[in-house]
Amino acid sequence: MKTIGHFIGGKHVEGTSGRFADVYNPATGEVQAKVALASQAELAAAVANAAAAQPVWAAQNPQKRARVMMKFVDLLNRDMDKLADKLSSEHGKTFVDAKGDVQRGLEVIEFCIGAPHLLKGEFTDGAGPGIDMYSMRQPLGVVAGITPFNFPAMIPLWKLGPALVAGNAMILKPSERDPSVPLMLAELLQEAGLPDGVLNVVNGDKEAVDAILDNPTIQAVGFVGSTPIAHYIYHRAAETGKRAQCFGGAKNHMIIMPDADMDQAADALVGAGFGAAGERCMAISVAVPVGDETADRLIEKLVPRVEALKVGPYTAGDDVDFGPVVTKAAKENILRLINSGVEQGAKLVVDNRNFSLQGYEDGFFVGPHLFDHVTKDMDIYKTEIFGPVLSTIRAKTYEEAIGLAMDHEYGNGTAIFTRDGDTARDFASRINIGMVGINVPIPVPLAYHTFGGWKKSGFGDLNQHGPDAFKFYTRTKTVTARWPSGIKEGAEFSIPTMK
Ligand code: NAD
């Protein structure tokens, strides 16, 4: 059986804890490798490597660090297919979707090439007589990134790009479910010229995460994953005085107004609801048509589209719309929630509970499901299902529809489909959700904007990528310098003010 270790100090190293987790091929259900789960001691060794490498890296001028990112972009493009193939084999998403996963991370690395500009400080010439004031952005030192299974290339790249180019060293703790791509990224960065020890990839589970949280050298933690773990990490990181941004789960609503183009809305819902088997934090999992007539028209358009979806292994290429979910436990949890929806009175208008794929009976495939007449009190509405399940909750009015999205505990993404500019503007302005689409179902901001949810979808300050990432991975030092023609007055005892 293949084993997957860590990448520490510029080398692949085997795990020494004796603990391993299974890495599946979700399409067949077979275990394809065992990944080492780091102990506290292994984590401490990686941090020591990072701490030794960081000052030398930080002392390089930002342009030189940016050039490593430039080369890294070339290498990511060169190895795109290789990365996407490995990603699909461990995650299960289609090959084209896996390329999108790498691509959306790569775009953040492209943004990081602008580090010299982004790291420029501020300067006030003549803040007082003979006084200049300037602020510098300095790296934090050693920082950590802890990432989820559903974007094993994109989210590690979102974390490591800004952190490294700003002059930090990083411990990346990727998901133990699909650990190979982050290790490949570390190899490519080394090839691009990143000094050894600046990026260390440590595989592991709760033990490694807790070791990160307890480690006094680590200054900041960027986390992405489920809300309970995001909350736990935010809490523990704050307790030990670390800077933390922890992004959590989601339940994204799409409101369909009576004036929307119903074909466009139905196509958007099918792509956003079922793409990547619904395992996206920006997936639309709730459709909210406004008015019964709109709902009837929407369901009529949705049913044939959902029934026509093709589910299969990534090796089937373009014949497949989405692949399996990540584990057997995930599949069982999704089916349990679907059954709870039926028991609690929702109407399952597309029912694939008996779905099985010939030749892949042991794979973690879940067929597409569509619910109508879902209500607020049902578990399928309250919980993040993270599977190919779209729930329709009918609202009588626009106010009721926006109220549903506003009252939900999650606040990652949302969308409205309408032809009316006034409604769209009102929605964008009032909604208490971090990322909003207007006739765009998955409004993932591009690399030079920032990504982040509100409410229980995000704990801590500042968003991911864009200018916020540079603020998160640096701290400001402000210098007040006085160069008077001569210091004649002697000591000053009152607080200085800029008169
Ligand atoms: P997860 O919370 O199970 O795992 C995320 C990370 O935390 C992994 O590295 C894992 O090893 C670690 N972890 C798991 N359990 C832990 C514990 N008890 N203590 C300490 N660390 C632990 O999440 P997942 O299943 O890998 O990813 C799916 C979740 O991530 C979904 O809820 C999804 O919405 C969310 N997500 C959010 C965003 C966002 O930007 N808001 C983006 C992608 C995914």
Can you summarize this structure?
The termini are far apart.
Give start-end ranges of low-pLDDT stretches. none
CATH superfamily of the largest domain: Aldehyde Dehydrogenase, Chain A, domain 1
Named once each, the bound ligands are: nicotinamide-adenine-dinucleotide
Assigned CATH class of the largest domain: Alpha Beta
Shape: globular
Structural class determined from secondary elements: alpha/beta
> The biggest beta sheet, please?
7 strands, mixed
CATH topology group of the largest domain: Aldehyde Dehydrogenase, Chain A, domain 1
Which architecture name of the largest domain does CATH use?
3-Layer(aba) Sandwich
Record field, number of beta strands: 23
GO molecular function, one term: oxidoreductase activity
Pfam families: Aldedh
InterPro entries: Ald_DH/histidinol_DH, Ald_DH_C, Ald_DH_CS_CYS, Ald_DH_N, Aldehyde_DH_dom, MeMal-semiAld_DH
Protein name: methylmalonate-semialdehyde dehydrogenase (CoA acylating)
